[in-house]
Batch of 2 targets.
Target 1
Amino acid sequence: MSLIEQSVSAIHKQLREKEITVSDLVAASYKRIAEVDDKVKAFLTLDEENARNYAKQLDEALVGKTEKGILYGLPIGIKDNIVTKGLRTTCASKLLGNFEPVHDATVMGKIRASEAVMIGKLNMDEFAMGSSTENSGFFRTRNPWNIDHVPGGSSGGSAAAVAAGEVLFSLGSDTGGSIRQPASYCGVVGLKPTYGRVSRFGLVAFASSLDQIGPITRSVEDNAYLMQVIAGYDKMDSTSANVEVPDYLASLTCDVQGLKIAVPKEYLAEGVNEDVKNQVLAALKVLEGLGATWEEVSLPHSKYAVATYYLLASSEASANLARFDGVRYGVRSDNGANLIEMYKESRSTGFGDEVKRRIMLGTFALSSGYYDAYYKKAQQVRTLIKKDFDDVLEKYDVIIGPTAPTTAFKIGEKTKDPLTMYANDILTIPVNLAGVPAISVPCGLSNGLPVGLQIIGKHFDESTVYRVAHAFEQVTEHHKAKPQL
Amino acid sequence: MARITKEQVKHVAHLARLSFSEEEMELLTEQLDAIIGFAEQLNELNTDGIEPTTHVLDVKNVLREDVVKESLANEVALKNAPDQQDGQVKVPSILE
């Protein structure tokens, strides 16, 4: 039994017909991890004993049980910035190396209620700050398609584990592209939901006005299954939206006849690799063949998105990460004579370089005398960027472009200069600033590495995004390509 | 001209409760200067009269009823505390 060949519906059919058990599925997951995770390094923590016991419980309860959870028996991995009660949650930071949450994130409660089996916690850039998973405080995750390349980030572990067939699917989080870019680099499907669609309660906050949890899967249909479970209003998250959640599976109709697609010229401009551009144009041709039409449009403020994002996200991070002071949790340094010194020593030894750099940038942007020039200015530009999207999405159903300007880059290639790394997020960041939903789906290979197609929708219209992604997937073979490990 | 000086970086580091070696401070000054320089491209845009966006959703303060509910037990709340005494978090001296 190999998870990489499976889907939610195929597994559920085999379970129904008693060809396999949940214990078989969980065993397959840990077997694959034992085989390939030395190379891929996707997992930070495994929850093997609990997972195997839970699988056994589900198998035993199955006798005579008719009502099953929507994700019954399916092996899932969770990004390590989503708190899991009683299981180490580190955010890939040394500072939280020994942190054991005392409650579950809202999404974890929903995952458990759906009867999925939690396999373990996945590597990431420390506190989700990065685009390559090279900023993990523990080790680097590698791209299953070519282990000399990065898996993307910050949800690099979540994307790599799915691509490598270690779990059926996973949860990631996306602040500036952290689900879509690794999904693109690893050849899997990743959705960033509309801001407010999925509860952030129990997601360790990086930039609260941008963060969203979302599903990473091998197919669009599996993505819709997982999204159905995690979406919805939560009174524990004051920015959660009280908007009805539609039936996402029902949106997978394959019908895109008459669909109006906008293609921003800025998303196929200089800096976007030729191969990537050609694969995206080929994908548009496929959608045209299905009855959709596309036109070139402009999102004129796109070039300002990276600067806007780094000011706003870092400012919010500097406030959110103030809680890590070595007092109530985390690692405390003994080298502090007084309280302030203890804070400084604990934070300086616990945080990695990129996290410290962003806290510094954010503290500077918020500090007296600079607030208006940097923080407020960036918030005003955010208004302009959001308006670009509102204007285009008033006339078109979706916006399509590449997820990232290139395929996965080499490990170490962009670590020297922070600005080079930041620029890599230029096609995903605007979506977070506007708060709209977007998916990355595989649309081909370039030099043996996956290319991702990004489909962006209107606020709370994940259904249309899924419909387009699924229609494309059904008539192409790209999502069936698998890495050789 | 440098947009940000080492003295400013030292001040910001104190505000952020971070400490750096002299060498780290040099590198950080250089890197922050480059990032701030990059961010100054936003000044190309005239934003007079444009409302700042804090949140994309029309969110307002969310209030709940002020009712007593069960909360974490003391020992659970202290489970992750690096140092504790008599059911309380213990910290280094806060008075000189």
Target 2
Amino acid sequence: MPLRAVHVLLLLAGAPNYDAFSDRDGNITTERQGRALFQLLQDSGQVEALFADAEAGNPRAKKIVRELESSYFPDTGRELADLVSRPPCLLPAVRELSGWCVPNWAFIDFLKADKPGGARLRKALFQGFEERARERHLENQLILSAMNAVVGVSVAASAIRSAEVAGASQSSVAVREEAGSIDPNKLHHLFDKPRHLLDDLVRACGGQEAAFLKIQEAANAALREGRLVMGPDGILARKTGVNVIEVEGFQVQLIGGRVVNGKVEIGTISREGLR
Amino acid sequence: MSEPLTPLEYDLMRLTAEENWPGFRLDGLKVTKRDNTGAGRYTYLEDAHAQQLVDGDYSAQYRWVDMDGIVNGMGWIVAVSDRKLLYIDIHTFGNITWDGVERPWRIRGGVALPRT
């Protein structure tokens, strides 16, 4: 088919105008691009075309989809959870009568739950909401209601089981299963740096892998309990004395890390300057 | 070994200096050693101007490196010890490997999109 004919077909199909909402590498850096992308999100056909392009390997589409799924929608979910967990909303009577303590999920009607792209963005939004809701100790019922509203009843049914697991204290066994095989490169990066002062902790835990699992478990517990300071992309704050966790009686600082899908992904750690 | 910083290393130093050390000069920085760990890199530094800094770990708050092929991106801290620059610790987040090749990257942080 001649190239010109392909372009005509794409135009008829409403192919996304990437130049309007991203630079040539797929980065959304200006407010104007952000507004254009927001406009695109209102059009289900464009959203699905964007996801189809990403699936087909279009690098700009892939980058934009990744931004939407890993940052924009989860962040929006977190902000919503923050809104509905403000102190007055924790009083049942106030919550029901306030008009704003129970999220009105109609604002995402433009994301079609029965379309692949829409469903994925709804899921990303809900994951952000759920993560922050659990940090804020919101009732399971509120979280499940949100799940039903955002991702649909069929997904909610299977997710209840994992929500129960997530809500419970995460055991080392669960962490171990999740961790699978720990990359030895990560262990080398963390533990073979003398300045990190981790040798005593490693000895107390019985080895680097065991120490890593304990640190991972303590980090996730601190996250659930709302004790970690992080930025808008889930990047942990990097300041002296911040994000210090207790592991087997030793203080450890998470000096580099990122929260992804409700779990702390450890970047680097140190005990320098700690007891 | 005394090599110039790579563009990535230079940008990380520039951002860290801008946020933490007003007036810091980058033009005297050289790399004395690179240790690619498979999950990041330690880049050891020397400073021809011997600028004095307060010991600690520094970075540019909430910024991260979005590099092609690295899921979740990477973070960094700059270590200062004995009042001197020691190294840049570039690290992946979680169980992700990095072979040390600086593929196309971009510094990210904050969100440019409007909120719903």
